[in-house]
Amino acid sequence: MxxxxxxxxxGAGDMLAREALLDRAMGPKRRKKSSEKLRRGRRPSEGLxxxxxxxxxxxxxxxxxxxxxxxENGPAAxxxxxxxxxxxxxxxxIGSALMRHAVAEAARLGHGAILLVGDAPYYGRFGxxxxxxxxxxxPGPYERHRLLALELKDGALDGAKGxxxxxxxKVKALDFVx
Length: 178
Known about the structure:
The chain is of the alpha+beta class.
């Protein structure tokens, strides 16, 4: 039986619960991934950080999208990740709901494309594929077949080539003050 949950915009008070969830769901190696290099020192794209909460208010899922540039002076896009769900609640629809919500919000806000590094069989059901990422690269080690993209606007990835670069708002020291 699926558990009840609601998807909301991530709030300032969600940081500790989100980080703890990511540690439980992904382990300590999560900080060494190439995607993390693009997120480090940056804030998520405006309006594109979400949490799933259970009826008690606990954070049971999370997803964020980040501003990136595709190559040197290339088009803007979003990088999705990480997507994480409380380990004991996997296969309950939380991850799928977060994905659908994030993609819909990115489209509503006018973004052209979303990229991610992940499993094609899982993300393919949301429209992601490696078909348009052959001329793109991550800044660091990654498995090429796992670099996936979804165009939200036709042609958004036309001519995109080179290494993906962070382009989002930088974190300020005051962001860490409680």
